[in-house]
UniProtKB/TrEMBL annotation:
<feature type="region of interest" description="Disordered">
    <location>
        <begin position="1"/>
        <end position="43"/>
    </location>
</feature>
<dbReference type="GO" id="GO:0035556">
    <property type="term" value="P:intracellular signal transduction"/>
</dbReference>
<keyword id="KW-0963">Cytoplasm</keyword>
<comment type="similarity">
    <text>Belongs to the protein kinase superfamily. AGC Ser/Thr protein kinase family. PDPK1 subfamily.</text>
</comment>
<dbReference type="GO" id="GO:0048638">
    <property type="term" value="P:regulation of developmental growth"/>
</dbReference>
<protein>
    <recommendedName>
        <fullName>3-phosphoinositide-dependent protein kinase 1</fullName>
        <ecNumber>2.7.11.1</ecNumber>
    </recommendedName>
</protein>
<feature type="compositionally biased region" description="Low complexity">
    <location>
        <begin position="8"/>
        <end position="20"/>
    </location>
</feature>
<feature type="domain" description="Protein kinase">
    <location>
        <begin position="49"/>
        <end position="318"/>
    </location>
</feature>
<dbReference type="InterPro" id="IPR017441">
    <property type="entry name" value="Protein_kinase_ATP_BS"/>
</dbReference>
<dbReference type="Pfam" id="PF14593">
    <property type="entry name" value="PH_3"/>
</dbReference>
<dbReference type="InterPro" id="IPR008271">
    <property type="entry name" value="Ser/Thr_kinase_AS"/>
</dbReference>
<keyword id="KW-0217">Developmental protein</keyword>
<dbReference type="InterPro" id="IPR033931">
    <property type="entry name" value="PDK1-typ_PH"/>
</dbReference>
<dbReference type="InterPro" id="IPR050236">
    <property type="entry name" value="Ser_Thr_kinase_AGC"/>
</dbReference>
<dbReference type="InterPro" id="IPR039046">
    <property type="entry name" value="PDPK1"/>
</dbReference>
<keyword id="KW-0418">Kinase</keyword>
<dbReference type="GO" id="GO:1901701">
    <property type="term" value="P:cellular response to oxygen-containing compound"/>
</dbReference>
Amino acid sequence: MSETQRKSPSSQEPSSPVPQGERSDGQGTDNKMSKRSSMKQMKKKPEDFLFGKVIGEGSYSTVFLVKEVSTGKEYAMKVLEKRFIIKEHKTEYVHREKEVFAMINHPFFVRMYFTFQDMDRLYFCLSYARRGELFEYLNKMGSFSLEQTRFYTAEIVSALEHLHGKGIIHRDLKPENILFGDNMHIQITDFGSAKIIKREVQNNTNEDSNAGRRRNSFVGTAQYVSPEVLTSKTTYCSSDLWALGCIIYQLLGGLTPFRGRHEYEIFQKIVKVDYAFPEGFDPDARDLVDKLIQLDPTKRIGCEEEGGYGPLKTHSFLKGIKWDDLINQKPPLEPLNKNRDNDNLYKDLKPGYDEMHISQLLCKVEVDDKTDCMHEESFDNMMTEQEHSELIEKQKRENIYHKFVENHLVLKQGLVDKKRGLFSRRRMMLLTEGPHLYYVDPVNMVLKGQIPWSRELRPEAKNFHIFYVHTPKRTYYLDDPDGYALEWVKSIQEVWDRYFGTPKVVKK
Ligand code: ATP
């Protein structure tokens, strides 16, 4: 019996969510003969790979950076637990994601090379988008320049043209699902929510009846979801064009166009198309966004009814784009993780999905995410406990912001303008013991968030007004209207020294 004829334990499972090992060569699903022969040659198993580290966690999967033993090539291995998929009734999503990956053949999408399974898990072997998510870049940089926005808009348009040409709607287009490959070109991923319309027209699959049953849920992410999905639960290719409009707005402006305290408020604004442009928004970009964020899905630039992709690609904002040559152009964005060296990851590893090793990798993610250890004892002796509690009591009585700081002593506070792209928000910033950097909306008296502390946090003054707080995931742009930026930086640095600086050695 040949290897492909022999039944594996997993292929005997009646509820197996995807077929046993096969290769997606990115050539579509038509060529069955060549596919079968490549299956024979290319059938893979976990033991063919070294599992280096966890690079992402989705709702139903864990994504690992792996190295193929025979070729030394790195891939992103998306691993799904069968039991969990079946329990959560996500079998259909998994099938669809695999099917869509197999249909796509375009450089601006993550590529699926192989799929295989064992008794417990499904494995999707994907191209590794080494440079991270667009979301991280936006977080770090606040917003993109006009040139960067134009270039990446063009890449997303080019990708969507391919996708829609194949009859596929992504339905969850957002900066988290737009990754960057080695050379900073985009690689769109996550087809768990995708819909294949051509197949549905032909086969009238049960997907619509499923959607009917899930009346109160929507597919996508609140900020990018189109009004028709909310009101009639119908998606069109142009629902992705709506999301594109939201993304262009966010790239240039720094925030999404529809914002609110909770999803319901965001949805209310979306169905009313209630959004505004910040001052300084480029007029050509504004015109394009306006033409994409249209209530009527048949009126969005780029949709079939509006003449397809031609008018979108020749819009004045995208003037000068060389559409046939995008992949060969140098993207106007530098990688954030330039020096990331993965060579040491695989040292002394045994190939395969070894439970012990995997749980170590998963623990490592949790530890990495936690705030660094802090040595509080290093400044314990600065004041007595009695003095400390007296100060807290005074703060409770006199400081209206006390309720936001979780009973921590405020070390410095003041109004600053927190900037993000073209937006600016006035906040009361509270630097406290802990350490914490809380920021509160002083008009509505609502805590808006905290700047996360870690050893990597670094304050930097630009001038008397503007200062930055750099954190691993984001740089906060702050403007002290009174011109005390240097004082802020000094105070934050002092607190850093207290908690993270080298503890003093006391000589006896
Ligand atoms: P969701 O909860 O959004 O549905 P999911 O279960 O579909 O997630 P993915 O979005 O595919 O999982 O992957 C989770 C994370 O893993 C991504 O946000 C990304 O950071 C990382 N990731 C996924 N695929 C790749 C890849 N090919 N290269 C690099 N990183 C990846």
